[in-house]
Amino acid sequence: MVITDHINLLPNPLMGNNDERIGTRFPDMGEAYNKSLINKALSIARENKINVLKGIYLATSGPTYETPAEYKYFRIIGADAVGMSTTPEVIIARHMNLPCFGVSVITDLGVEGKIGYTTHELVQAEAARTEELVTTIIKAMISSL
Questions:
Q1: Is a pLDDT exceeding 70 seen at residue 111?
Q2: Which residues of 38-55 are buried (b: 16+ CB within 10 A; e: fewer)?
Q3: Longest dimension (CA), the chain
Q4: Alpha-carbon gap, residue 47 to 44, rounded angstroms
Q5: pTM over 0.85
Q6: Confidence of residue 110 (pLDDT cuts 50, 70, 90)
Q7: Which domains does the chain carry?
Q8: CA nearest to 129, candidates 108, 143, 115
């Protein structure tokens, strides 16, 4: 899933003293994920016949997988995928005015009626299964810059 926006439920990494040399105290997050990079990734995926969806990523602290009630809540508030990372890095990068692109490999469905038992090993195995596809997109994006 190409990330188009996020919901951050982690502590904000910009709390505390700010160094104005690095970035503004309150960076604009209106376009956290660069639309040009998103479009480039989607185009590359189409050219390579790679099935990619767009969506909103939600970050939680973990280290647990979500309960059915949490999945339901996250869907209600607008999330398409849930993970335990990504958003702090994007917040820091945007603080530094860096363009951002994000992708999330969907490893299990948090859909009511389809939620199955999951383990860290199952998530890693599913992620490994898609490694070649994600690598194709990222390499093409880098070479086009």
A1: no
A2: bebbbebbeeeebebeeb
A3: 50
A4: 5
A5: yes
A6: low
A7: 2-12+25-139 (3.40.50.1580)
A8: 108
